[in-house]
Amino acid sequence: MSASNAVRAERWRVVWEGYSHGRGAHDIIVEGLTSEGVRTYLRQLDDAKDPKAYAAARIAALTKTGTVATPEPPTLAEAAEAAAARVDEANSKRMLDTLLKERGLDDRLVAAATASAQRVPTAQIPPRPRATKSDRAPWEAVVLASDWHLGAVVDPAEVAGLGGYDFDTFCRRLTLLGHKVALITEEFQTLRPIRKLTVPLLGDIVDGDSIFPSQEVNFSVLDQVYLGALKTAEWLTGLLHTFQEIEVIALPGNHGRYGKKGDKKKKVSFDRQLAMFCMELTKSTDRISWVIPTAPFHDWEIMQHPIHAEHYDSIKSWNGLPYYGLDRAAGRLTQIANAQGRKFSLMVGGHYHSQAVLERPGGLVMLNGSMIGPTDFSIDQMKTISRPSQKLFYMSKEYGINSEHMLWLDSVQRRAA
């Protein structure tokens, strides 16, 4: 459809609306009139008993005298194309408005987190640990950190004394996690150098505050971000007593989302805001580096072994771990990687609150545990009890994973009982 035909079709629509409904007629009538003529027309329109009929008569008079040429009716194809163009324009405007709102919200939260972090004293950085003198090949340590659900509340009475969780419990378990990582690593360091720790934050670090109707939390999600960043920064800097350097990879979960599922993209996440806040708190040292992807997953290498990480909440399950769904997802991700000349020797994730390892040709799928432990949902709906735990393992260039450890985190609570 040519530009002139499109203009003609649009002109016919305006004139037709002017005759039928009076909309758009005024623009046609006042075109070419002086300011006095416009005022006269508006007074006459005001005095008319039937303003629509008066406007139609004025258009008819203009058409008869040749002031306004009578347009030819558009063809069906021309009218359809003009309508489609109007729909496309409306859709584009709506999409642009949505993107601008998301970007504006994300930018405001980042700015708020940065401003808040600048008002908090930066973390105290310990001196570098003494390097291990050994001819043995070095290892690197990895701690999978996920499903901390900071801010969640589990009343022990509601789970028949099988568990319990609140902010104080979280703090005790985080301290115990750091202690166990340091203890095991320092034993290995008597044999070989282990300089670097990688910490994939695999999502659901915060619990959110509007994820499901009966959700019970200690405090709002903004307080979860603030307090969580402070505790995470304290935990990371404490591990610098054991490691020369730490790399943190922060990914979003489903509990950190804004609003209902699907309202925003995964990158718009309170988990991500916590990571940005924590990065500001630890910026005084170059021994802690951060990777905060925009994508909901991340691919990288440790000791030349390629790894894929995500939260895995997109894989459906029913009353247990979705082994078939995990295997199918891993197979598809492997196909995508192979098409690009890459491969994965390890895929890691969280979400299911239970540690598991799925062996596949060419690599492993490894699921992390949780900080929260048993909940009324896991006991009543899933008929399972998962002890609070996180995963620690060590990798070498030659063999990949050399040593793997389940770090149980309810030991302090059990001893106290």
Please characterize this protein's 3D structure.
- The protein has 417 residues and is of the alpha/beta class.
- The chain has helices spanning 3-21, 25-30, 35-47, 51-65, 76-118, 167-188, 221-239, 270-281, 323-339, 376-380, 411-416, and strands at 139-144, 194-201, 245-250, 288-291, 297-302, 305-310, 346-349, 356-360, 363-367, 389-396, 400-408.
- The protein contains 11 helices and 11 strands.
- A hairpin with a 3-residue loop joins β10 (389-396) and β11.
- α5 runs parallel beside α8.
Give, in spatial order, the strands making up the sheet with the most strands.
4-3-2-1-10-11
**What is the alpha-carbon Rg in Å?**
32 Å
Content of β-strand: 15-25%
Helix run count:
11
The number of distinct β-strands equals 11
Mean pLDDT across the residues is: 80
Roughly how many Å apart are the termini? Answer: 80 Å
Backbone structural class: alpha/beta
Broad shape: elongated
Outline:
The protein is an alpha/beta fold and 417 residues long. It has 11 helices and 11 strands. It has a 6-stranded mixed sheet with strand order 4-3-2-1-10-11.
